[in-house]
Amino acid sequence: MSFPQNLGICTEIIWLLYRINLNEIYHNSAIGLVRRALNTGVLLTEVYVDTVGDPEKYRTKLSDIFPSIKFVVAKKADSHERSSITELGV
Predict the structure, then answer these.
(1) Topology annotation, domain 3-79
(2) Alpha-carbon gap, residue 17 to 3, rounded angstroms
(3) pLDDT tens digits for 46-90?
(4) pTM
(5) Would you list the DSSP string of 7-74?
(6) Using CB atoms within 10 A of its CB, is residue 74 exposed (0-12), middle (13-18) or buried (19+)?
(7) Backbone phi, then psi, for 35, in 5-degree steps?
(8) In this predicted model, what pLDDT tens digit does every residue of 13-48 receive, in sequence order?
(9) Maximum Cα–Cα distance for the chain, whole Å?
(10) What angle do CA 47, 90, 84 make, to 5 degrees?
(11) Among residues 34, 45, 36, 31, which one has the least CA distance to residue 87?
């Protein structure tokens, strides 16, 4: 079985066990990555995230969890112009 097939099976198992949709999995992954960066000493001022679902709801969700960070949620978010991000301890 190839990687894409395994990924599909894993996603289906997660959905069957926990009733979590792909958008929620993606949101939780992004939140986990931001938390991990903050926990290792990275000072994030802006985070650019590709949209999954409604971009404004997603931006609000992220901003509620991390109020000190500016989030840009958009299609092809990594192509948007960004200001500098300062890293500490990395």
Answers:
(1) Nucleotidyltransferase; domain 5 (3.30.420)
(2) 21
(3) 998 888 788 899 999 999 999 999 998 887 666 655 443 333 333
(4) 0.65
(5) HHHHHHHHHHHH---HHHHHHHHHHHHHHHHHHTTB--SEEEEE--S-HHHHHHHHHHH-TTSEEEEE
(6) middle
(7) -60, -45
(8) 766 666 667 788 788 889 999 999 999 999 999 998
(9) 43
(10) 40
(11) 45
**How far, in Å, CA of 33 to CA of 59, rounded?**
15
Integer Cα distance of 25 and 82 in angstroms: 26
Output the six-digit token pair for 24. Answer: 């929620």
Token output for 41:
């000493």
Amino acid residing at 2: S
